[in-house]
Design a protein that fits this description.
Elements: H1 3-16, H2 20-35, H3 38-42, E1 45-48, H4 59-67, E2 71-78, E3 83-89, H5 92-95, E4 96-98, E5 104-106, H6 111-114, E6 115-116, E7 123-126, E8 130-132, E9 137-138, H7 144-150, E10 156-160, E11 166-167, E12 181-183, E13 188-190
């Protein structure tokens, strides 16, 4: 098993062990920290992951963005070319269904009138298994988000994670796309944009 795979497994095991009560408290703090970001008030087009398993839950975050009148799109995975599309939703309760790996995704019938180009997005909210102090992240090994983010260089990249998912350093490759901001239940960390 590779060092990345070992690190991913170790951190995900810790994340899975959080109690429901701990998660609820941490997620409330995280949501408050996220909504306090000045960019959230200023920017309009948001690309937001739908939470899966023990990831930071984004249901309330999506609902709040929609209440604020924001344009919210959700990833729809296309496994054949290994890409994702951003599909606009206005009512997640009726417009999402279980998709790739059982992750909630937009119903494909929404695509004709609700497809957002990566270049139109202001903010991309990204999941991860592990994040490091330089802004890099470990996903789940498929590379979907890195490939998508390369096509959305203008988007502010925000990672959401519990503080136990933060480590000192993750081995990264030249094509790995770092975050601009990481929000945990303890703090908000920002990194200056140096490349993509």
């Amino acid at each position: 098993m590779s060092p990345k795979a070992i690190l991913r497994r170790r951190v995900l095991t810790l994340r899975d062990q959080l109690s429901r009560q701990q998660r609820t408290v941490f997620e409330r703090r995280l949501l408050a920290g996220f909504l306090d970001l000045p960019e959230i008030r200023e920017l309009h087009c948001f690309f937001v992951y739908c939470s899966y398993r023990s990831e930071v839950d984004t249901e309330l975050l999506i609902a709040q963005l929609l209440l604020m009148g924001k344009d919210v799109s959700i990833p729809l995975t296309d496994t054949s070319p290994g890409t994702m599309r951003a599909v606009r939703v206005t009512n997640p309760k009726t417009q999402l269904r279980l998709g790739y790996k059982g992750i909630p995704e937009p119903d494909p019938t929404l695509i004709p009138g609700n497809l957002c180009t990566p270049e139109s997005l202001d903010v991309a909210i990204i999941p991860g298994s592990v994040f490091d102090e330089q802004g890099y992240r470990l996903g789940y090994g498929s590379g979907y988000y890195d490939r998508f983010l390369i096509r959305a260089p203008q988007a502010l990249r925000i990672g959401l994670a519990f503080s136990l998912q933060l480590v000192r350093r993750i081995p990264h490759l030249p094509h790995d796309v770092p975050m601009d901001v990481l929000v945990t239940e303890k703090e908000v960390t920002r990194w200056p944009r140096t490349g993509i």
